[in-house]
Amino acid sequence: MSTPANRRAAGGIAVVAAGALALAGCGASDADTDANTGDGSAPTELSISTFNDFGYTEELLAMYEEETGIRVIHNRAATSNDARYNLFQKLGSSGLSDIEGVEVDWFAELMEYSDLLAPVPAGVEGRWLDWKEAAATDADGNLVAYGTDIGPQGICFRADLFEAAGLPSDRDEVAELFPTWDAFFDVADDYVEATGQPFIDASNSVLQGMVNQLTEIYETPDGEIIADSNSAVREAYDTVIERALPVSAYAGQWSDDWYASMSSGEFATMLCPPWMHGIIAGEAPNVDGWDVASAYPGGGSNWGGSYLVVPANGDNVEAAQALADWLTSPETQVKAFENAGAFPSQPAAYESESLTGYVSEYFNDAPTGQIGIDRAESVSVEPFKGPKFFPIHDALNQAVTRVFDGLESPDDSWNTWLNEVASL
Amino acid sequence: MLIADKGAARTASPPPSPPSDRQRRVRVLSFSQKLSRWDLKVSPFLYISPFFLLFAIVGLFPLIYTAVISFMDWDQIRQEGEFIGFDQYAWILSQPKFWIALRNTFSIFLLSSVPQLILALFIATMLDRHIRAKTFWRMSALLPYVVAPVAVGLIFNALYADNSGQINAWLTAIGIGPIPWHVEPFWSHVAISTMVNYRWTGYNALILLAAMQAIPRDYYEAARVDGAGVLRQFWSITLPSLKPTFIFVIITSTIGGLQVFEEPRMFDQYGQGGAASQWLTITLYLYNLGWSEWNFGRAAAMAWLLFLIILAIGLINLLVTQKLIGDAGGRGPTLTRAQRRQLARDQRDRRAQNKEGAR
Lengths: 424, 359
What we know:
Strand content of chain B: under 5%
Largest sheet of chain A: 6 strands, mixed
Membrane topology (chain B): Multi-pass membrane protein
CATH class of the largest domain in chain A: Alpha Beta
Protein name (chain A): Cellobiose transport system substrate-binding protein
Strand content of chain A: 5-15%
Structural class of chain A: alpha/beta
Distance between the termini of chain A: 69 Å
Oligomer: heterodimer
Structural class of chain B: mainly alpha
Strand order of the largest sheet of chain A: 2-1-3-10-4-11
Number of helices of chain A: 18
Order of helices and strands of chain B: HHHEEHHHHHHHHHHHH
Number of domains of chain B: 1
Radius of gyration of chain B: 29 Å
Signal peptide (chain A): 1-24
Radius of gyration of chain A: 25 Å
CATH topology of chain B: MetI-like fold
InterPro entries (chain A): Bact_solute-bd_prot1, SBP
Keywords (chain A): Signal
Number of strands of chain B: 2
CATH superfamily of the largest domain in chain A: Periplasmic binding protein-like II
């Protein structure tokens, strides 16, 4: 009975069977992991997912294994967007790491699902800067995230270009030039007049800086959208259009042109959180004019930073909380700063000598550690950012870009933005 | 065969059928005969069933799921939603962005498909000639198709950068001056179309080449004997023979063109289609609704609108091309409706006559 047709059929069955076995194998291995890390007993492994560079090096995580015997598996997504997709895809079901990294830009969206996150245990609260903690507290008063780094903004400037334009170039003198936004734009006008070159890199980063100094921006904590009625937003928009546009090289950041221009000396200043230092140094390794001034027009402003969260339906919630606690302790955060420039959000870290004594060789030996501390302490306002902050702010950036590109008049562009906000 | 005979004998007792009928077909069969009959009838369906099962799982299910979600205010994370009817569709149709996206999609589609097909035809004709190292040239035509679209986007972006890009540097060098690629809608469409063309021209050229090679060489010989030149041969032999392939290429590139996504997504660093939606396409808008605003209800409604648009354009496409190219596939002359009816009537009559003859 062994006809060719039969043999073929048998082969087919074998293939199907193999496939079924493989599927069964997957199921079995899933079950295994579950059994391995069943609740109650302490796990031997914990997983953490971050993106970009949190400063959690192999050596750092190995220290935790030495202390506790728990091995930490670190998954790193290339970009914050990748991490965002992954987190939101799996948040409602399963498949997330024991600890997930979250960026402040999309943190407000996550806060809508704060009930799916395990709250920070009572003893750990109070470690972070007030506003860092306030942003991670949900409507019920639960702190649901562990702050990692922050982005207290200073001003990066090209000392050589300042000197050529007849401006002071010493970082302390430069810092005194910018007490207010008006003073900042006056200096900008002088610079543009003297050199014919733009003063600052991007108008949208000015908008970002201004908006972050408001207490209420686009939404109230009740979920009401006030973007259209908030006169402070309109004021910021008008100021950016009238004063920042004429002195900026670009509308927005992160374009190919923008990257290329950091080394070419196309502009002289950038609003600069600590994480931007690495980007400048990386893009313009051969430029030796960059410096950092401990100043920010109109008080402090924070741009960026991250949190760690523990999904409540994870298998090892308690052990994960202990790890998140350790990772965001002041001592570990100072190490993360040394590793990757992630500026700590824990005031206790600001007493550490490794931070206060830190100088950046690239930025003409500027004490960037101490500058970061000063800037962090000058941040007095933490704006409320609701779940729609990101799309609304993004649309406002585009409104500025349209005016910059000459596609629409300032008023038309503002109205287009209002329509977009209304349709969200 | 023994069993079959026995079976036939055993079941032959029921009322005898008319003698003429008994001659022609045996109504009752043994099990093994039934089996082989089923084998004949059912097996083909079984053999192709894996495809349909797979299609039901990965094709039909998402299609229906999307349709359901499109009528709901859907929360993807909590996997729950509220039925709201056609609100999402109404919302999309009321968005100025949607109409801009539709315009951009068609603009990019035309700017890419038309030059692409003309160029592909030209390349295919060149490759069809007797040249040295044929395989080398044919493979190199396909090479860009192998490059990942995201990589193409990255490379072309560096070229098209407004200030630091090579293309503007060349344009300035020859005195035309820089073009605002990321500002003017038309120029952004041109730039994106070049990326699309870069990838797909070679692919289409190879398909057309394959069709050209299937044209019998006798035609060309006969034409040469009749004194037809190269151009005349191209117009009177190559082009008409390519028509069915052309329909295929046009329809696939229409579907691809209306779904253009990677190239505009990679055209700037934000992937939002430009500050004034200059190069926002339907799929890009769909993607941003779903994956950046997490509004899966709207994204699903958009997906269905896109499906309907593609269906409509596809039908128009088919009708137009069939009108233009009556003799698609060379299956005899096209008949008018009256002729077709006449033909059917004739056939029916003939069949009736045959039956009567048999009785």
